[in-house]
Amino acid sequence: MKKWLVLFILLVGLAGCNQSKDTLDSLRVAEVTRSIFYAPLYVAIEKGFFKEEGLTIDLQTTWGGDKTMTALLSDGADIALVGSETSIYVYAQGADDPVINFAQLTQTDGTFLVSRTQMEEFTWEKLKGTTFLGQRKGGMPQMVGEFVLKKNGIDPHNDLKMIQNVDFANIPNAFASGTGEFVQLFEPQASMFEQQGIGYIVASFGIESGHIPYTTFMAKESTINEREQAIEKFTRAIYKGQQWVYERDASEIAKVIQPFFEETELKLIEVVIERYKNQKSFAEDPILDEQEWENLQNIMDEAGELPERVDYEKIVNTNFAKKVSE
């Protein structure tokens, strides 16, 4: 066999190997925290829904809205999973390449009001005159918390003692150590406190505040324009995950996502999933609707944290979500 023919065959073979290796498109995703709240995302990964769409997902946890947005803006990530309010902050700063919300993952606040004592009949009036351990000032949980208090006739700064200077990671420990009669907590800490007899869930901030785009997938406008097919495939995989979560019971979902929460008991994961499903915190589809967007801005405005009101069409793109949901 002639040398050039052997060389040609080798080159074709190598090209074939490279092609098969590159058939899966890769997307780097930065999540703001690791949370059972994001169960449909982990289901989509574990059940192979991204692979079905020809995608590989490089998931990194960036621990905090500021760090997550920095990763996205500096091209350290292609997609960010973070609160929609961050896209408003970026837009208000006059970004040349705005951050666009294209798929919604959670549609309510994920925190709960935990009381130090059991209450068979809870009313919001019972918070008056107490010490309330709230979330960090300026964050979405704190904004929702104050919004709900006001909605229920409580002046957060006059009717009770509001503590907002405790670091997010230390809030559970502060309450467990005796600070406050009430605390605003995320899961699984809220359910864990119930199991341990440290506190008792008496209300849901998610139910009280209504539907808002609490956590969404977003990308820079340039990324969406350059990688439309990949963004559509990503959104379709998320929709599959959302459907799967609402079609299965909590025990099955917990088993699928447990690899992401190896230090959390399976039964506790089940309890948290059941609670979030019952109040429909997981979005049932990736479409971020206009009413949800307005609710978000109203809450931010009420808290004095809205830099400017941003039209829905400017930084929300529902084309992908509507297409995959048809």
From TrEMBL:
Residues 1-20 form the signal peptide. The keyword DNA damage does not apply. Belongs to the bacterial solute-binding protein SsuA/TauA family. Gene3D superfamilies: Periplasmic binding protein-like II. GO terms for cellular component: periplasmic space. The lineage of its organism: Bacteria, Bacillati, Bacillota, Bacilli, Bacillales. Keywords: Signal. This is ABC transporter substrate-binding protein. It is found in: Periplasm. It comes from the Bacteria. Pfam families: NMT1_2 (PF13379). PANTHER family: ALIPHATIC SULFONATES-BINDING PROTEIN-RELATED (PTHR30024), TAURINE-BINDING PERIPLASMIC PROTEIN (PTHR30024:SF47).
